[in-house]
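Supplementary Note 3. Input sequence used for the single-chain structure prediction.
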Amino acid sequence: MENTRIVYLSYSKRLASLFIDAAIFLLGFCLCYFLAFAGIYSVEEETDLRLNAFLNAGLYTETEEGYVLREGDSYLDYMEMTKGYYVGTPNQNSYFDSGFYILSGGTRKPYTVEQYNEAILGVTRNGDSTYFTLEGVGEGEYAVVKQSLYENGELSEETSEGLLTYFMDAFNGIFSDLYNDPFYEEAVNSAKAKTICRQALSYYVSYSLPYVLLPLALGKGRGLGLLLVKGECVSPLGVRQRRLWHLGHSVPSLLVGLSLVFSTDFYLFLILAVLLCTGNAVSTAMTRQRRSLSDLLSYEMKVDSGKSRPFSNVEEVRDFNDEEEEELLSISNNYYVNGD
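The predicted structure, written as discrete structure tokens, is reproduced below.
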């Protein structure tokens, strides 16, 4: 039997309510993220430390245009940059001997020549690599390019290209080596923790105003959006719920916010939020009572306050239904007896 005392909130009003509350939330999130928590959870220190790590490691250089990745013209350039990082050169201390690394709490030591030969050039006293050999090289000296790769005293074009690729890969490997350094990992983890706190607090603080605090203060499950479009939340039977019951409507969105608590991946959060909004819109459009997924999960529906007369309790619903049935029965009997 159709409940004549309940008029569902129109789809257009529901959308208007959604946009109003969403605007409040987005404004609050931006204010919290960029102002309220920007100083408390600033990652400027970690950002500077990571930048200085790249500069002192010889991976980047400062120019008039800013900080740019170092590049070489030949394999010798990349070999020197790689050697400078791991061992050091006459013109440059190893990264691990730099004052920056030591003062930052770094504990690693530069490679010895033997360690460099083995780890970077792939050469030991027991075997050569594709390009390098220790044959004829004294103790504590760097491996040299194999004599067999020379043609008329010069390296072949193919060998030069191969060595360029070889040392470019070794130079790129410095990034991985740097990322795995304990003090660098600590800076990354610190920045990640601050970002998580900043995102999560911004989300939950800004979310609580339109979706938790206002519904509690205004009653009837209404945020500012529902208040302005003259709507309210009731049970599927049309009964007004207690104020705390309406908080169940915000549970799905609060769960989506957990993606910001356990990850710094803001795009994952956006995907989950879009999926939730899409599900709510589709459910609202397809259900007879225009109930969204959040409404279904919280056992609620939204009605037009100006056109509806919600019930105070379930007993009132039963009495109303009984009266409706009696009225219909009376109409049916009159029609049967009098024919009108």
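The beta strands are 60-63, 66-69, 88-89, 92-93, 132-133, 144-145, 150-151, 154-155, 231-234, 301-304. Residues 44 and 65 are 21 Å apart (CA to CA).
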